[in-house]
Amino acid sequence: MALVLGVDSSTQSTKALLVDASDGTVVERGSAAHPPGTEVDPRAWLRAYDAAAAGFGEQASALAVGGQQHGMVALDAAGEPVRDALLWNDNRSAHAATELIEEWGGPAACAEAVGSVLVASFTVTKLRWLSHHEPENAARVTSVLLPHDYVSAHLAAPGTTAYTDRGDASGTGYFSTRTNAWRPELAAAAIGHEVELPRIVGPGEIAGHTPTGQLLGAGTGDNMAAALGLDLRPGDVVVSIGTSGVASAVTEQPVIDPTGSVTGFADATGRFLPLVATVNAARILALQARLLGVSLDDLSHLALAAPEGSNGVTLLPYYGGERTPNRPDATGVWAGLTDDTGPADLARAAYEALLCSLADAVDHLHAAIPGGANPSGRIVLIGGAARSAAVQTLAPAILGRPVTLPAPEEYVALGAARQAAWALAATANPPQWDLKDGRLLEADPTPHVREQYALLRDRTAVWS
After folding, report:
1. Residue 23 bears catalytic tag
2. Residue in 165, 222, 236, 257 annotated catalytic
3. What is the value of pTM for the model shown?
4. What are 370-429's pLDDT values in tens digits?
5. Is 260 helix (H, G, I), strand (E, B) or coil?
6. Domains plus CATH for the chain?
C-alpha cells in the first residue's frame, strides 16, 4: 500500500494526514499549534510540521503542503527571514493596496493585470508596506516565498530550488492568471528592487524530493487544496468557516471582477477558483462566547433558544476590519439592543451575522461567474465552525438553499494528500477518491434576517 502525506499549514495550526494513495483512506493524523497573531516567525511553522508529522511522516512515498494564502515570507541572501512573516489577516498594508491600485491605473486595470483587485491580504501590498515602513529590512530581501513554499522548502533536499504552484501564486498580486506566469516587475516595483520568486510547478508534477527520497508535490494554497480534497466541480460552491470565511467555486475560465468583491484565483488542477473572502468568521463566535462567559457549545444552545431575527438584534461583525466589503478600518457594530435583550438574542445575532456575511459572499460569487448560479450545483459547508449545531441549523435558512455537510475531515490536508498522490501516480488527472457520505441540511428560508443585516451593513458604509 502506497501512502502519501498531506499537510495543512494554516493560520492557527499544522495538520498532517497520512493517507492511502489508492482510495484516500486516512491512516494516521497529527496536529500542532501555531503562535497567535497576524505576524509570526515562519520558523514556528517548521517546528509545528515536525511535531504534527512525527512518527509517521517518513512512511509516505510522497507529500505535499497546503498553506494559508498571501503571507509574506521575506528572506535574505542566506535564506533567513528578515522579519516575522506578515499574514493574510494583517491589515496594516491597506493603504499600500490603495496606492498600488492607483499606480496600476485603477481597479479594472489591476484586475486585468493579476486577476484580482488588490486588498491588504495580497502579498504585494505587504512588500510595499515593508518598503515604506522598514526600508532597511526591505533592502535586505533577496527572495519572497508564500507560507506553503517556506514549509515545502523545509522538506526538500538541499539544493532544491524554491517552488510554488499557480493556485497559491495567484494570491500574491504579482502573478497573471491570464498568462499563467509571474509578473516579477510588479513585485520589484512594490519593494523597490528585484527579488527572486519561486519556480512554478504545474498541476500533478513532481516538484522535488526530500533528503530521504520521498517525492514532493507542488503544494498549493489552502482554498485550492480544500477544493481538491472535496473534488469540487463547476457549479458547486464551497462555504468555509475557519479563521477566515470563504465562498469559492471552480470554473473553466478565469473570472475577472473589476469591483474587487471576487478574487480571480487559479486552482490546483489547471482551472480557476474565483473566491470571496471575509476576515471575520469563526472568531465572531469565539468573541461572543467570551463576552457572554460561555463555551462555544453553550453559545450554540443559547442561539437556538432565540427566535429567528434575534428579537431585532443585529450585529455587523467587522471586529478585525473587513475584506468583503473592503473596510479594513471598520469595527464591530451592534444595533437593536433594548432593555429586553437577553443572552440568547446576543448569541443568535452572532451566528446570523456570520452566515449573512457569507451569504453576501455567495451572492458576489454568483454575480461574477458567467451564467451565474448553477441550480444543480451544491453548496458545501466546511471548516471548524461548520461542526456547530447552530451553524448547521441556521445555514440553509440564511443561505436560502439546502446545504451539503460533508463528513468531518481536514479537507485542506486531504487535498494536499491527493495532490501528492497525483504526482506519485504521474497521471493526467488527480486520482479519484470516494468521499465519505455527508448530510443534507434543509430549512425554510429566512430572507427577513438578511434584510435586517443588509440595512445595518449599508447604513454603516458611510463610516468606513
Report:
1. no
2. 222
3. 0.92
4. 765 554 578 999 999 999 999 999 999 999 999 999 999 999 999 999 999 999 999 999
5. coil
6. 3-222 (3.30.420.40), 231-405+434-464 (3.30.420.40)
